Amino acid sequence: MSSNDQIRFEIAMARRILAREGCESMVAGHVSVRAPGEDAFWVSPFEYFDETEPERVIKCSFDMELLEGDWEPSPAIKFHAAFYQARPDVNCCIHTHSYWSMVLATTGRELGMYNDMCSLFLDEQVVF
User: Fold this and answer.
1) Is the pLDDT score of 127 beyond 70?
2) Within 13 Å, how many C-alpha atoms sit on residue 73's CB side?
3) Concatenated DSSP letters for 31-84?
4) Angle 75-67-29 (CA atoms, 0-180°, nearest 5)?
5) Residue closest to 94 by CA, chosen among 3, 13, 37
6) pTM as predicted
């Protein structure tokens, strides 16, 4: 399996796991992975998470130019490119509209810090 095939497979697999665990709204969201050594990223299509197949994953440039794949990049993925440009240390972006995340967002409160792994997000939460 080539590294590109592996990335496509892992994106599809991640979306299916997210769906199985209840982390999607059935209407929106994407999973992307930075293309190593390029100003580009691999990203999932706009479809139900549990239906994603590796061959549907595309690669596009940070300027939203289609580099590989069969569908046009959605304007909804522009912020993935912005994250990768602003943060060279970020290699994956997951965007979902899961039910409980949306419920939490309506409260206007930050997530509580309950274990040592939470320190990764200390003072970096944004409520919008």
Assistant:
1) no
2) 23
3) EEEE-TTSSEEEE--SS-GGG--GGG-EEEETT--EEESSSPPPGGGHHHHHHH
4) 35
5) 13
6) 0.81
pLDDT of 46: 84
Q: Which of 61, 19, 95 is nearest to 69 (CA)?
A: 61
pLDDT tens by residue, 16-49: 999 988 888 776 789 999 999 999 999 998 888 8
Tens of pLDDT along 59-92? 999 999 999 998 888 888 999 999 999 999 999 9
Length of the chain, please? 128
Give the Cα separation of 124 and 127 in Å (integer). Answer: 10
Instruction: Assess contact for 38 and 18: CB atoms under 8 A.
Output: no
Cα(35)–Cα(53) distance, integer angstroms: 18
For residue 25, CA distances in Å to 21, 48, 52, 65 come to 11, 9, 15, 27
